[in-house]
Design goal:
6-stranded parallel sheet, disordered N terminus, alpha/beta
Length: 601
Amino acid sequence: MSQFNDKPEEIEQDESKRMTNGANIVVKTLIKCGVKYVFGYPGGATIPLHQAFSHFRDQIRVILPRHEQACGFAAQGYARATGEVGVCMTTSGPGATNIITAIADAKLDSIPIVIITGQVNLNSIGEDSFQETPITEVCRCITKHHYLVERTSDLARVVREAVYVAKSGRPGPVLIDIPKDALVGQCVPDYEQPFNLPGYEQDEPTDLSAFDEIIKRLNNAQRPMILSGGGVSLADANEQILKLAETIQCPVATTMPGLASFPRDHKLCAGMAGMHGTYAANCAIRDCDLLLVFGARFSDRVAAIPKAFARGAFVAHFDVDPSEFNKVKRVGATVRGDLKDTIGAFVDRVQKDGKLKDYSNWRATVENFAKEHPVFYKLRDVEVKEDMIIAQAAIAELSKVTQGKDVIITTGVGQHQLWTTLFYHFNAPRTWLSSCGLGTMGFGLPSAMGAKIARPEATVIAIEGDGSLQMNIQELATCVTEHIPVKLLLVNNQLLGNVAQWEDMFFHHNRANTYLGDIDDPENFGKGDGFHVKRYPDYVAIAKAYGWDAVSVEKASDYPQALQQMLDSPKPFMIDLRIPYSQYVLPMIPPGATVDDIRFE
């Protein structure tokens, strides 16, 4: 038998009683782990693996993105939308290095994905062989765990371990690097081989010892506050956080990753905290005397000056990962454990031992913050006169017409992402998918593909910027060929808008490689009017060339019809939203500053 060809009829036999190759073992193990979709791009080192997948098409489907980075982001979209492990695979060398950004992205946002990379034969490792990269060493600091598999007989155990490690505890990416000879080598597989994870705590110990102190502080608090982070949704603890907030009747702020962890339209929600968060959320955290933090890590975009963050409050930090405790912000109490369990247990204690007060005056104070500086947009005279559409209005309208419907929103990174956090109201968990920690441009479209594969009944809309879209624009092809009817709202301002905003605010409006048009255009030197921008390229033509339906919108009066057309279409559909480039994301707390330095203009 050739090492490259196991016949389909042989694969269908009982593998526990016969020799089979490593590639078949990998595929069969994934199936046994409940994996139904893999996002993969083939190459020389993974030909045996793709051949094996082809024999199991009725049990597991391989989606073919057009770039390895998109494989990783699509796997993330799948994982973020479901809470299940997303799986992706690439070949060795450049295939493996192309997916590194998606791995780092998953690590920072704690997303459970398994990455399978091909590798040159074991005896060729270290010889600078064709398409060789020591990918486990390259990714050592950006994975939760990683493997270089040396024996075919280890593959079943390693794949099972990888899926388990990726999802358990604090989720994260796990890399499996498989030399080609391990894929083509043969053995009798053992699918029940025990795990070999020395030092990994399979049952994370829960520590509720701080409950007494936290309850005492709550009983004495006058201005309690909840900060809900991305870990709440990762733990599927949304119901628990809602029950806690309604029990205490205190305001709730979210982080960017936690944006959909608490309903935006709930009366207790003060909005998102941080650099581009709401005035109400940031002031409430500043003035509270007790801050209960759930599944958040005090990033610099939330707590730019850790000592000044919640400076007068007793801070209690709940998290599954004890390495986050006191890493950035010194806190008064810590609670370790799965958030669904610890929040549930804390609610029970609050209801039993809490001497809850009437916090109506405190809530009114936070509501006044929101009234003093609400989240809003203002049309300028030229925009009104020329019926121009702006991103804030478009996103607000999208939010309005999709409320109460099964909709998932993904974004790339840039101004469009931040406008989405402010003007789209997320009221259900796992409906907001974005690159928050790493801030990766190009995330929106491929993550939308993964989300749509995971949730075919949902309407999945990628909100992208023109700079961000071009990082993975080739995935327009994947949506058509793989029959993935996502929607794309392209915020097209011919600019790397977020960087340009910083140029305007901190570098005297000096343009330095942020204009995406012709280098001789006056806009490239900051001398245009910011409204009548030449557009390059023609995204509608590009989308149609890939097989999408697409329309361009420049006038506000044309947008409602185009939006409805996009939402009603059964096909991949793009709106090229041609906005003025001179729009800012506001409010903004300058880097290294506090809410006291917030800018509204």
